[in-house]
Amino acid sequence: MGSVVLKNVCKSWGDVHVIRDVSLEIPDGEFCVLVGPSGCGKSTLLRMIAGLEEVTSGQVAINARDVTEVEPKLRDIAMVFQSYALYPQMTVRENMGFALKMARLPKAEISAKVESAAQLLGLEALLERLPKDLSGGQRQRVAMGRAIVRNPQVFLFDEPLSNLDAKLRTQVRGEIRELHRRLKTTSVYVTHDQIEAMTMGQMIVVLREGRIEQVGTPLELYDRPANLFVAGFIGSPEINQLKGEIRLGQGAPQLQLADGSLLGLPAGLEVSAGQHVVYAIRPEQVTVVDDDRQGAALKATVTAIENTGSDMQLFCETGGGAFTSVFKQRLEVREGETVWLLPKLSGIHVFDAASGERIACGG
Fold this sequence. Notes:
Blueprint: E1 4-13, E2 16-26, E3 31-35, H1 42-50, E4 57-62, E5 65-66, E6 77-80, H2 92-102, H3 107-121, H4 136-148, E7 154-158, H5 166-183, E8 186-191, H6 194-200, E9 203-208, E10 211-216, H7 218-223, H8 228-233, E11 240-247, E12 254-256, E13 262-264, E14 276-281, E15 286-289, E16 298-307, E17 312-318, E18 321-327, E19 338-343, E20 349-352
Parallel strand pairs: 3-8, 3-9, 6-7, 7-8
Antiparallel strand pairs: 1-2, 1-4, 4-5, 9-10, 11-12, 11-14, 12-13, 14-20, 15-19, 16-17, 16-19, 17-18
Keywords: ATP-binding, Nucleotide-binding, Transport
GO cellular component, one term: ATP-binding cassette (ABC) transporter complex, substrate-binding subunit-containing
GO molecular function, one term: ABC-type transporter activity
């Protein structure tokens, strides 16, 4: 096993800058997820770790060894691709052992490694089948088995679940988590799906336009997003965002919404009168009350209701724009009704509207 360290890594194609001065340290044994929207550079960064893309500038190190100029096959990594990349004419056994055969390992050793990986992944009964006779989930497990038999220092996963349906994604996601728990091999996993990132990652790296926006545990990113981009990207349903202007009085600051209504803010915010901010709160961080609670609650008109069985979602229109709330209880409300939504003070995030950066509380 080994750590992965990137120092001031950049990647450009001519005047197009894909990765911009990225520095990152992934500790030994960590499961790190690179997440971000399409085109943010996450797959390019993974391929640079693998050696499949040249580094324009900067350094890549695996287990304290500089591998920036080292060939992929000599980096002691194994990669699992989105497309499975199995040889169609080879059996599962042959696919899983092919890299070991090319490395000229003894047949008995190859067989033992393949059998061990097959047992780990529940593939024992499929070893003599061809890829065309397997389901999508089985093919992906074979691709993982091919990586496991090499016993690499680092596993690299490039959106491995994208070709699977929703039910299979959930199943294989759990299998990858269990695999990491048992093998404890450093893993770097690329996805555009923030649900995958939240449920799989011990460490999440949020990327945008080739830069790192924030690094942290899933709950750190969810509870304390560094900026509006991270707040909006992490979480489903998406965090509510209301634009407004700061009003200061003798008590805590207030937010003046577009319709002139006022909404309470946490005390101690480092803000100035007239400052334009974005008030953000997650859909589950509100309750329904019967009045404005002395200016602390948000007046809302219900525009749509969705019941999923376990949850009830209210889609509303407020003085600051659209607002979504999620409740475990089933409320007696109807479309067109007016309700008061009381945000939990501990769940309120405030960001500067110009920079998008989080505004801290003083003291």
